[in-house]
């Protein structure tokens, strides 16, 4: 039975170097949020407004717990959770609409969603269940300066506890170079095998959630812990040849994307605060850049891949047999448009890849990335 997060706020005073910043936003500063209004007539601006208009009268549907990991569509818990999690991109669209137009109705609607989730949700610290919670932090970034004091206080406490919980889980990872840090080590085939989620995509998502919450809380000590976890994951999950541990286990580009996107969001958050985590190279030579460069030929259509053909995880075949999209057949490059949109914020060389993916697949980067970062 999963234990709900119930943490007291911790008081800590740790000072960063003079060039480090710890303002209380996750990804989008107040000045960046205000600049979005200039893009109201853009295609991304207009499509965002259309979506937000449709959601203006929608009521928040928060739940205490999301249950998605390891479940199939039509499982009652899965379906209820997916329906509730639909609130998360909605609150971001409403917050963006406020920044695009300045209209109070969008601010009021976004505030309702943010307050409802911050006062209701009690994470079980499963990063796959919570994978879309980054939308909560994006939405709050966009409207934080105009939220009522009671909602600001509520969200600040939520951010602190969310960060504390997830970073404590991140810190259970094995040290790089140990047998437990290598999922190909024979100990992972034994009866007392280590927990692979301390190294694989689960850990990347834990980092994303913990780091975004830490930056949103504006807590330098939590941010420092997030950076330590980030560097450890670069060393253990990413390989010097550009592959990721999950590709070896799952034989799927789906899981390459699933590892890189959360790590890129972490690097974007650091970048927004004047810190360069993107260019970190581990002692073994692994880095985000090498992993992205490995993926580029697949994204641009020069190479193809049959997904999950040799996966070592039985549940992948279960999902394939259940007809879950993407768990068999050739990988669709449009799945990489978000990955390279994130990457292009950190390294201009990936703008070409984003453009190529858009041209060849018709996919578009997320609206919030286009509006806040381009």
List keywords for this structure.
374 residues; mainly alpha; Glycosyltransferase; disordered N terminus
How many strands, which pairing sense, and closed or not: the largest β-sheet? none
CATH architecture: Alpha/alpha barrel
Radius of gyration: 20 Å
CATH homologous superfamily name?
Answer: Chondroitin AC/alginate lyase
CATH fold category name: Glycosyltransferase
Low-confidence stretches: 1-22
What proportion of the residues form beta strands (DSSP E)? under 5%
Helix content: 40-55%
Query: What count of domains describes the coordinates?
Result: 1
The quaternary organization reads as: single chain
- How many E-type strands? 0
State the separation between the terminal residues, measured CA to CA: 44 Å
Structural class: mainly alpha
How would you summarize what this structure contains?
This protein is mostly helical. The protein is built from 16 helices and no strands.
Characterise this structure.
There is one protein chain. The protein has about 375 residues and is mostly helical. It has one domain (about 30-374): Alpha/alpha barrel (Glycosyltransferase). Helices cover about 55% and strands about 0% of the residues. The protein is built from 16 helices and no strands. It has helices spanning about 30-35, 45-55, 75-85, 85-100, 105-120, 135-145, 150-170, 200-215, 220-235, 245-250, 255-270, 290-300, 315-320, 335-345, 350-360, 365-374. Helix 4 (about 85-100) runs antiparallel to helix 5 and helix 8 (about 200-215) packs antiparallel against helix 9. It is globular. The model is unreliable at about 1-20 (pLDDT under 50).
């Amino acid at each position: 039975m999963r234990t709900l997060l119930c943490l007291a706020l911790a008081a800590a005073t740790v000072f960063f170097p003079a060039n480090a910043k710890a303002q209380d936003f996750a990804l989008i500063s107040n000045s960046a949020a205000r600049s979005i209004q200039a893009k109201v007539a853009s295609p991304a601006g207009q499509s965002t407004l259309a979506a937000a208009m449709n959601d203006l009268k929608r009521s928040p549907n928060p739940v205490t717990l999301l249950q998605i990991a390891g479940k199939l569509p039509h499982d009652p818990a899965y379906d209820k959770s997916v329906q509730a999690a639909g609130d998360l991109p909605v609150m971001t669209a409403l917050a963006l609409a406020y920044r695009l137009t300045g209209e109070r109705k969008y601010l009021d609607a976004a505030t309702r969603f943010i307050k409802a989730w911050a006062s209701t949700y009690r994470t079980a610290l499963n990063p796959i269940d919570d994978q879309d919670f980054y939308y909560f932090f994006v939405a709050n970034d966009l409207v934080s300066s105009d939220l009522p004091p009671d909602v600001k206080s509520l969200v600040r406490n939520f951010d602190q506890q969310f960060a504390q919980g997830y970073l404590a889980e991140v810190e259970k990872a094995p040290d790089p170079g140990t047998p437990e840090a290598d999922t190909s080590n024979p100990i992972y085939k034994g009866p007392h095998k280590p927990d692979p989620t301390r190294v694989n995509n689960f850990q990347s998502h834990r980092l994303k959630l913990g780091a975004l919450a830490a930056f949103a809380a504006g807590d330098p000590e939590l941010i420092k812990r997030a950076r330590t976890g980030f560097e450890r994951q670069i060393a253990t999950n990413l390989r010097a040849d550009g592959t990721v541990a999950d590709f070896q286990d799952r034989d799927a580009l789906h899981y390459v994307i699933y590892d890189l996107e959360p790590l890129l969001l972490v690097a974007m958050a650091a970048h927004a605060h004047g810190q360069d985590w993107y260019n970190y190279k581990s002692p073994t030579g692994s880095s985000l850049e090498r992993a992205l460069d490995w993926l580029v030929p697949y994204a641009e259509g020069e190479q193809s891949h049959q997904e999950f053909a040799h996966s070592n995880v039985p549940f992948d075949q279960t999902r394939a047999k259940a007809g879950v999209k993407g768990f068999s057949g050739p990988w669709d490059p449009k799945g990489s448009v978000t990955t390279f949109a994130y990457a292009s914020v950190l390294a201009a060389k990936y703008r070409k890849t984003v453009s190529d993916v858009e041209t060849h697949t018709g996919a578009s980067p997320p609206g919030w990335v286009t509006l806040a970062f381009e």
